Amino acid sequence: MPRSGRQFSSFRSRLLVFVLVPMLAVLAGVFLSVERSTSANTRTVINDSLQVGRDTLQRLLAERRDTLLASSALLTADFAFRAAYATENYATRLDTAQNYLRRVGIADAMIIVSPDGLVEVDTLHPGKQGQTFAWPELLDAADESESHTSSSVVLIDESAYQLSVTPFLAPDLKAWIVVGRRLADAFVRELKKLVRAEVSIVRSSADGAAVLASSLDAAHRDALVKSARTPGTAPATTDTRLVELRGSAFVTLEEPLMQLEGGGRVATVLQRSLDEALAPYRPLNQRLLLLFVIGVLVAGLIALWLAQNLSQPVAALARQVGRIARGDYTHVMSSSRRDELGQLAGSVNDMARGLADRERVRDLLGKVVSKEIASELLSGKVELGGEERQVTVLFSDIRNFTTLCEQLPATQIVGLLNRYLSRMSEVIESQGGVVDKYIGDAVMALFGAPVARADAAEAAVRAAIAMQEALRELHALHDAEGLPRLATGIGIHTGNVVAGNLGSSHRMNYTVIGDAVNLASRLQGLTREHDSAIIVSAATAATAPGFAYRALGEVRVKGKSEVVTIYGL
Which of 232, 292, 331, 441 is the most core-located residue (most Cβ within 10 A)? Predict the structure, then answer.
């Protein structure tokens, strides 16, 4: 199954991650939740306070308007003013207006406008009489209102003024008295005390922005100009927004005061520092952060202890399993644990002992039968019965072995026979054959059982040729030891047999039976008559055609009615 995702190099690192990551997530979630909740609540409180500040601003402007209108009404009823105005002398009128402003002290400008809209007196711009009044809509609004008064904020010489218009009647309309009060730094500082927020009056247009009055210092005023919205980007609502001034976040609320020609406008900007509002909560956040760090450290220590407590026995188990995989069954794990890991250690020890016993059985069995047959018997499929399959059977026998036994002592015969059988068995197994059994000095070998193979016949013929070469090597040893040389005959046949476990339920043997076995044995016996060390049947020659066979003719072997074509090597 393919692996995916991150792979851990050790069980300890996996456990550390699985313990620490959830703990970090929980602690971080709590910390961030408290911090966000604090910020959200603080922002809500600031929003509410700025909304109250906006209402206070509107109420203050209304009070100033009423004061200016009342002052203007008193002025129009003043006898001295009426007398001065009746002189129709510009200097007298201007001087009277200026004296009035100084005496009353609640206004910064006075403009007297004729009924036809021409400026007669302007305390801000002396000498500009006769010009058209710049805000005729104020006069129209006053003329249309029931009180014959009006009020608005206008822009004069890059300063915001609150103007109030009152008619001068004697008894008909003689002039319009326009009294204005500048919305200057003193005004916004007074408003700041009431609303507990920074207050600025800002003019903005497509050409840029300018601060007309502000409770901010010069550096923050410049930052406010850079952050000011152009009229085209202004929101349709009057919701608050965050504005960054010199690295600090300010919650900002804008209240329009007037619209300018060309799409510009003048607005009052109310601001409160979010950082200052959050300052009382910083000790709490710091304590939470400290608790977060302590929690992480404690969780890390607990995770490390758990990892150490679990990873060491797991690592010991892994080392023990590695020893078992390398074939070392002698080492025994010692564990005092009573938990599942201790039980697992005991099971591993039991497994090692079981594998050691199995290996001893396999080793012993491998000395009695071939490794392939031993594996077949140890595979758990040890049942009486067999299956039909095609195999190549090889029979090898020492000629005149009975005479040889009469000439040599028994101990010498046993030594010579063991040397011969050992060497022949090595040759057979090197070609993939299986020694089925030893019958005295004869060897019965199988190719294609118990493990099937496509080249069984070729392997059997190669093994026979190699056996003859190995016999010549033994001759040199025998000559050196004064022992007689051996002559052998080999018969090979390929055919169908029944292969399986034969015997009883208490004792059985893996072998093959069938006519192919008998024919191979008969072919071995024919090697004496045809003076050929190796004789193969036509079935074997046809299955393994890559050898230099010589035809020996057709023979009728004992036990078979039909003739058999044989070949020699």
Answer: 441
Judged on CB neighbours under 10 Å (0-12, 13-18, 19+), 530 is middle
Query: Could you give the angle at the alpha carbon of 145 between the alpha carbons of 139 and 148, nearest 5°?
Result: 65
Nearest residue to 543 via CA among 495, 491, 489: 495
Spatial separation of the C-alpha atoms in residues 266 and 268, rounded to whole Å = 7
- CA–CA dist 565, 75 (Å, integer): 151
Per-residue pLDDT of the chain (569 residues; tens, 9 = 90+): 444 445 555 666 776 777 777 777 777 787 788 778 888 888 888 888 889 989 998 999 999 999 999 988 888 888 888 999 999 899 999 999 999 888 888 899 999 999 999 999 999 998 788 899 999 999 999 999 998 999 999 999 889 999 999 999 988 899 999 999 999 999 899 989 988 899 999 988 878 889 999 999 999 999 988 887 665 555 545 678 888 888 889 999 988 888 887 778 889 999 999 888 888 877 877 787 787 788 778 877 777 777 677 666 777 777 778 777 777 777 777 766 777 767 777 787 778 777 766 666 555 445 445 555 556 555 545 444 578 889 999 999 998 887 788 888 888 888 899 999 999 999 999 999 999 899 988 999 999 988 888 999 999 999 999 999 999 999 999 888 888 889 999 999 999 998 887 776 666 677 888 999 999 999 999 998 888 999 999 999 999 998 999 999 999 887 777 889 999 98
CA angle 40/45/50 to nearest 5° reads: 125
E strand or H helix at 191, and its extent? helix 185-195
Compute the distance between CA of residue 223 and CA of residue 243 in angstroms, rounded to an integer.
10
Nearest Cα residue to 120 out of 76, 177, 159: 177
Rounded to a whole number of angstroms, the CA Rg of the chain reads 59
Cβ atoms 519, 557 nearer than 8 A: yes
Structure tokens at 534: 């190796």
Q: How far is CA 233 from the centre of its chain?
A: 41
Chain-centre distance for alpha carbon 480: 76
Q: How many CB atoms lie within 10 A of CB 266?
A: 21
Helix/strand/coil for 127:
coil
CA distance linking residue 163 with residue 64, whole number of Å: 10
| Helical segments of 431-514, H only | 456-481
Three-state secondary structure readout of 276-327: HHHHHHHHHHHHHHHHHHHHHHHHHHHHHHHHHHHHHHHHHHHHHHHHHHCC
Q: Are the C-beta atoms of 31 and 288 separated by less than 8 Å?
A: yes
| Amino acid occupying residue 69 | L
- The torsion region of residue 7 among left (phi > 0), alpha (psi -120 to 50) and beta comes to beta
Q: Whole-angstrom Cα distance, residue 335 to residue 352?
A: 15
Residue 341: Cβ within 10 Å count: 17
Q: Are 382 and 388 in contact (CB under 8 A)?
A: no
